[in-house]
Every structure is written in C-alpha cells, then in structure tokens.
C-alpha cells in the first residue's frame, strides 16, 4: 500500500490539501483525530492517566483537562515521557490499523508533526504543504482568531521550515490561490495513482 505522509506548519494548508485528496476518493487518516481518540473517556490511555493523576487530570464530563496536563508535563520531563509512553504507541497502532484498512488506491496520513513524532516512518513518501512563515501567521490568525504571538509560539515549537522542506519527497507551494494549490495536487494525485499501480 502506497501511503503518503502529508504535513506542513500550522496554517500552511494541510486541511485544504487533505480535503482535496478526500474529495478525490482517497482515504485520509488524520493523526490529530487519532491522538484525541486514544484519550477518550474509557480508553486504556485515559484509564492510565486517571489512575496516575486522579480527578485533577479530568474535567467534569470526564474528558481530559488538557490545560492541567499541559502544565504538568511542561514543568516535568519525566511526566512528559510517561504520558507519551502511554499515548504514542497507541496512536501509532491505531494509525497503522486505519491505514491498512484503506480501500483507495493509496492512502494519506495527515499529521502536523509527521517528522517530529516519527510518524514519517509509517509512510512511503512525504508531501509538504509550504508557505512563508508570514503567510502561516496571517492565515492561522484569520482562521482561529488566535493571538499572533500564540501562533508564533506554535510555529517555534514545530521543526523549522527549511528542515521540513529538506525532508520532503514532494513539496507544494500554497502561497498562491486555492486553485493554484489544487492544480499542483491534481498532478501529484495522478503521479500517486501511477505509483500505486507499479
Ligand atoms: P492547516 O490545516 O495546515 O493548519 P488550513 O488548511 O486550515 O491549514 O489553512 C489555513 C487557513 O488558510 C484556512 O482558513 C484556509 O481556508 C486558508 N487557506 C488555505 N489555503 C489558502 C490559499 N491558497 N489562499 C487563501 N487562503 C487559504
């Protein structure tokens, strides 16, 4: 099975690109969604978190208190390691299962942290959606009504643009219009269909 890892910084256009592939009938597995699924109430990782930290790690509806947990692991690397040990293998397992169940000619794994998380090991090729940092900031701010400094902090926590580009098998430039993006993606879709038949 040909699996393409789709990534890019916040606001680069990953969602726009993955929507294009989904509309073309390609199975898209979203690492962000899977990361949330493994900590839903009752799931094994959720149980482990509840057992370790008690009710303070949960909100009233029993979903994770993400702000509390973020603070916990931010101030303590050992806690971060523990939490990642509980969640990362389960995320990986679920990604592998969902990708292996895909019935389209090839599949897409979309992940904001494809390179940072080691999820790039699950894919045969990587596709980076690229825009200049200033465009990232502009579009992410407009989308999320987030403060600019918060977007810049998220960008700073992701791998630098140049490094991401150097790791890419393919790059699409999303600094133009959505149509410019779709033209590049259509050409890649055709290339991936050919590769999937090889
Ligand atoms: P990501 O998923 O990488 O964070 P999105 O696909 O959500 O990025 O794109 C960020 C924002 O920019 C969204 O509001 C989206 O509609 C908009 N956007 C994406 N591509 C373009 C484009 N080529 N021109 C203008 N706006 C765009």
Itemize the secondary structure elements and their pairings.
Elements: E1 2-7, H1 14-23, E2 27-30, H2 31-37, H3 44-53, H4 66-74, H5 77-100, E3 106-110, E4 125-130, H6 133-144, H7 148-157, H8 161-167, E5 170-173, H9 178-197
Parallel strand pairs: 1-3, 1-4, 2-3, 4-5
Bound molecules: adenosine-5'-diphosphate.
Series of H and E elements: EHEHHHHEEHHHEH
Q: Which class do the helix and strand fractions yield?
A: alpha/beta
Cofactors and ligands: adenosine-5'-diphosphate
CATH topology: Rossmann fold
Number of strands: 5
Low-confidence stretches: none
The top level CATH class name: Alpha Beta
Q: What is the makeup of the main sheet?
A: 5 strands, parallel
The CATH level-2 architecture is identified as: 3-Layer(aba) Sandwich
* Shape by Cα distribution: globular
- Rg over CA atoms, rounded to whole Å, is 18 Å
Give the rounded overall mean pLDDT.
Answer: 96
User: What is the CATH homologous superfamily assignment?
Assistant: P-loop containing nucleotide triphosphate hydrolases
Which strand order do you get reading across the main beta sheet?
2-3-1-4-5
Helical residue percent band = 55-70%
Q: Tally the helices.
A: 9
Distance between the termini: 11 Å
Number of domains as seen in the coordinates: 1
Range of strand content = 5-15%
Describe the oligomeric state of these chains in a short phrase: single chain
């Amino acid at each position: 099975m040909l699996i393409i890892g789709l990534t890019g910084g916040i606001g680069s256009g990953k969602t726009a690109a993955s929507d294009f592939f989904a509309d073309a009938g390609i199975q898209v597995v979203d690492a962000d969604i899977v990361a949330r699924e493994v900590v839903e109430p009752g799931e094994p990782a959720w149980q482990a978190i509840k057992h370790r930290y008690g009710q303070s790690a949960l909100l009233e509806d029993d979903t994770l208190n993400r702000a509390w947990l973020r603070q916990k692991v931010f101030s303590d690397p050992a806690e971060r390691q523990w939490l990642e040990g509980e969640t990362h293998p389960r995320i990986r397992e679920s990604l592998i299962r969902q990708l292996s169940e895909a019935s389209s000619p090839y599949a897409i794994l979309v992940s904001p942290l494809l390179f940072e998380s080691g999820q790039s090991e699950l894919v045969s090729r990587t596709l980076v959606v690229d825009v200049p940092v200033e465009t990232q900031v502009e579009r992410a701010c407009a989308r999320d009504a987030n403060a600019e400094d918060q977007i810049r902090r998220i960008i700073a926590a992701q791998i630098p643009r140049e490094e991401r580009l150097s790791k890419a098998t393919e790059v699409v430039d999303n600094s133009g219009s959505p149509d410019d993006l779709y033209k590049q993606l259509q050409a890649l879709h055709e290339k991936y269909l050919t590769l999937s038949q090889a």
